[in-house]
Design goal:
Elements lengths: L14 E5 L5 H13 L15 E5 L10 H4 L1 E5 L6 E5 H7 L2 H10 L5 H7 L2 E3 L13 E2 L3
Parallel strand pairs: 1-2, 1-6, 2-5
Antiparallel strand pairs: 3-4
């Protein structure tokens, strides 16, 4: 009996949509990361990218538990000495709410070339509208 190994050319990528309104950030990010990697499929193989596209809407209405709105810090580094900046989560939510979900999902992916490719299939939007209706997106159950 031979083991089935999926080929990159044979992968059919589905499109899923997730409404992030009222969902907890970490719990949502786990489901999104597993769907992007293809871990929800029976043909999952770690070295072959079998994942799907994920569209996240209402990123500005995501829930941060506890006092993370005031205490959680996002760091940026410009590359220069003393070029590190720290921003609170409430300021990130006001300026760029998509970053909260993107950073959470990125932290749950492995650190390799494949994860950088996988992250390009994540589409995050602050509002309820998205331009991917032509792809016949399905609702992702959470």
């Amino acid at each position: 009996m031979k083991t089935f190994v999926p080929k990159e050319a044979d992968v059919v990528r589905e499109w899923f949509v997730v409404d992030a309104a009222g969902k907890t950030t970490g719990r949502l990010a786990v489901v999104i990361a597993n769907t992007l990697r293809g871990r929800n499929k029976p043909t999952y193989t770690p070295h072959v990218d079998t994942g799907a596209f994920v569209v996240v809407t209402n990123a500005d209405k995501i829930k941060l538990t506890g006092n993370k709105e005031e205490k959680k810090i996002y760091q940026d580094y410009s590359g220069y000495s003393s070029g590190r900046t720290e921003t609170k989560a409430k300021d990130i939510r006001a300026k760029n709410p998509e970053r909260i979900i993107t950073q959470a999902v990125k932290g749950m992916l492995p650190v390799n070339r494949q994860s950088r490719q996988i992250l390009t299939r994540l589409k995050v939007y602050a509002g309820a509208d998205h331009p991917h209706a032509a792809q016949q997106v399905q609702e992702l159950k959470i």
